[in-house]
UniProtKB/TrEMBL annotation, chain A:
GO terms of molecular function: ATP binding; ATP-dependent DNA damage sensor activity; four-way junction DNA binding; single-stranded DNA binding
Domain RecA family profile: 78-247
Source species taxonomy: Eukaryota, Metazoa, Ecdysozoa, Arthropoda, Hexapoda
Protein's UniProt name: RecA family profile 1 domain-containing protein
Stored Pfam families: Rad51
TrEMBL record, chain B:
Gene Ontology annotations of biological process type: DNA strand invasion; double-strand break repair via homologous recombination
Highest classification ranks of the organism: Eukaryota, Metazoa, Ecdysozoa, Arthropoda, Hexapoda
Protein name, UniProt field: XRCC2
Gene Ontology CC: one annotated term: replication fork
GO molecular function list: four-way junction DNA binding
Length: 337, 268
């Protein structure tokens, strides 16, 4: 919550701010919550002057109330999706990565999350003027891999250079820097021409530094990252992808033997593989779209695909969390197709 | 001589008393039965998303009088960002088609008719997109102005009330989740008490100091009291069985089952 400062209004002099502070009116909210008459008595400002300050604060900081009909007209000219240009994936997604919402790409280590993200970056800029911001938090973004994919697809060196220019890569090593990056985009300090997609690969790498914090500072940072991401994706009309990690463990269920007379009972031991998305309960409610990636281990053997891995993408939306749609993609030298 | 008692009222109270406001009683009887009353507070929570129920409630509330809907005005504090206009439009169109079919006994595919009704519905919907804590609290304080300007608003929705909780916590001491919700309810109640509106808010299921089931959570109240709520609704998604909502009011608790078909809730 912003503190009440001189910049809010010309009437707010140092002495008035000091008086207010002595009366525990420190933040903008404290000021707005207080009775105007009391503020007038405390500050020796007239009632209209107090109301003028309040109006100025509302004007600067309150959200604007927008009518649904106006929003509808505005939305007609807005883009809704960033196509992935992978036909089967676009079909399942209903057009592509949604604009204005947060998408999570999740899966076990080595399942192809980063490969898919790199492909999405290539495809987003390949046949358009758009650019992509790729936030690499692991330090393993491979320009060589992108070059190889483009080369395998017969892209000329000139086009290759143009494509690579439109994929802006930034290395981020902690949550504070990610927040600064997003705030710089939000405030126009960092301007990226025709930005259509932001990919953060991956978020747990940054959040792992805060696991086990008693003061939950990591969650405070995550909340800020989410709020800024929501703002950028909505106001700048971009898609926003966060890569998350799945963990798995074997849960040993020992079913109790039924009450039978035989003294010689063998406990029925079953092993269940359980999977979990990282980043905790707060994060679980954030993405509007979830893409879970699974490597199809038997597929290549059955279908005699050489040097090729098949990956399954399971898509769920927040509007109906139980409805899962999926598609299978091919991962090879040509990229993800 | 009998004493004459005078009752003073503020300008806002006078405005609220004189302005015509659409009541939303019985607009969603499967959950609210004869309610909700103006002034009621409703909580919706769930482990999964609450968007499906919120979207359904909003669209039902906006349905025009000609199609036997309440045609009420709604303000939405969109702090979560997942309740999109496209989703609401899609859902509204489905509902309008069904209502038109029921009223004329034949399917209506006339997009002009549907679009004009949709426009009427959207004119009664007001959205505040909120992205940070300062904006959130300032907008809540500004609600008084919004409700004065649009005096026909009957329902105010916070989706979600708890979106900025972690951003507000400082290193020294974290506010308990229940206390945080109560603090916000106190602030909102103070502002809306003179305006005769129903307030509905959502929160994630984990956002509670007590991890008890709905029957063991704090009771609901018949009348609007400070920090108290009148309806508590829990959404439970079941992978193997039908989904359900647990509803708790001051005097009863019941369960309703539902499916989601084409984004719309189908009650069983």
């Amino acid at each position: 919550m912003n503190a009440l400062e001189r910049k809010e209004h010309v009437y707010l002099t140092e002495s008035i701010l000091k008086t207010l502070k002595q009366n525990r009116i420190i933040t903008l909210f404290d000021f707005l919550q207080e009775e105007a008459e009391k503020l007038s008595t405390l500050t020796k400002l007239t009632l209209p002057q107090v109301l003028e300050i309040r109006q100025e604060i509302f004007k600067k900081h309150s959200a604007h109330l927008i009518n649904g009909a106006t929003l509808f007209i505005n939305s007609l000219t807005c883009k809704k999706y960033i196509p992935t240009h992978i036909t089967s994936l676009d079909e399942v997604l209903g057009g592509g990565i949604p604009v204005g919402l947060i998408t999570e790409v999740c899966g076990l280590a080595g399942c192809g999350k980063s490969q898919l993200c790199m492909q999405l970056a290539i495809n987003s800029v390949k046949e358009s003027d758009d650019s992509v911001l790729y936030v690499d938090t692991k330090g393993d973004f491979s320009a060589v891999r992108i070059q190889k994919i483009l080369d395998a697809n017969g892209v000329s060196y000139k086009d290759m250079a143009l494509i690579m220019l439109k994929i802006r890569v930034v290395h981020i090593w902690n949550m504070e820097d990610l927040i600064t990056l997003l705030e710089n985009i939000k405030n126009g300090i960092l301007k990226i021409e025709k930005l259509s997609l932001i990919i953060v690969d991956s978020l747990p790498c940054l959040m792992l530094q805060h696991f086990g914090d008693e003061n939950k500072i990591g969650l405070t940072f995550l909340n800020r990252v989410v709020n800024n991401s929501r703002y950028i994706s909505k106001e700048f009309q971009t898609g926003f992808i966060y890569v998350n990690i799945q963990t798995r463990w074997i849960d040993q269920d020992v079913s109790e033997p039924e009450e039978i007379e035989s003294s010689c009972t063998v406990k029925d031991i079953t092993y269940n593989e359980k999977r979990n998305r990282c980043l905790g309960k707060y994060w679980q409610t954030i993405p509007a779209l979830l893409l879970v990636i699974e490597k199809c281990s038997d597929y290549d053997i059955e279908n005699n695909y050489e040097n090729c891995v098949m990956i399954k993408v399971i898509v769920t939306r927040h509007t109906n969390p139980l409805l899962a749609e999926n598609c299978t993609l091919k991962l090879n030298a040509l990229g993800v197709t | 001589m009998a004493s004459i008692k005078c009752k003073m009222e503020s300008g806002i109270q006078l405005l609220a008393r004189l302005s015509k406001k659409t009541g939303i009683e019985r607009f969603y009887p499967i959950i609210f039965e004869s309610g909700p009353k103006l002034g009621d507070f409703i909580e919706i929570y769930g482990e999964g998303s609450t968007t499906c129920l919120l979207g359904d409630l909003i669209c039902e509330c906006l349905i025009p009088n000609d199609l036997n809907g309440p045609e009420a005005s709604i303000i939405v504090f969109n702090t979560d960002g997942k309740l999109t206009l496209d989703y609401l439009i899609n859902l509204s169109k489905i509902k309008l088609s069904k209502r038109l079919k029921n009223s004329t006994n034949k399917p209506c595919h006339d997009s002009k008719v549907i679009n004009s009704l949709l426009n009427l519905m959207l004119k009664n919907l007001f959205i505040l997109d909120i992205y940070n804590t300062t904006q959130f609290y300032t907008s809540i304080q500004n609600l008084e102005f919004f409700l004065t300007k649009y005096s026909n608003v009957s329902l105010c929705i916070f989706d979600t009330l708890t979106a900025f909780y972690w951003d507000e916590q400082n290193l020294q001491k974290a506010t308990k989740m229940d206390s945080y919700v109560k603090k916000l309810l106190r602030i909102v109640q103070k502002i809306v008490k003179d305006f005769k509106i129903t307030v509905l808010y959502s929160r994630p299921e984990y956002f509670s100091t007590s991890k008890e089931s709905i029957e063991n959570l704090e009771p609901c109240y018949e009348n609007s009291e400070s920090e108290q709520i009148n309806y508590r609704i829990q959404i439970v998604y079941n992978e193997k069985d039908v989904n359900l909502v647990n509803v708790r009011t001051y005097n009863k608790q019941f369960q309703k089952k539902f499916h989601i078909f084409n984004d719309e809730i189908v009650w069983l």
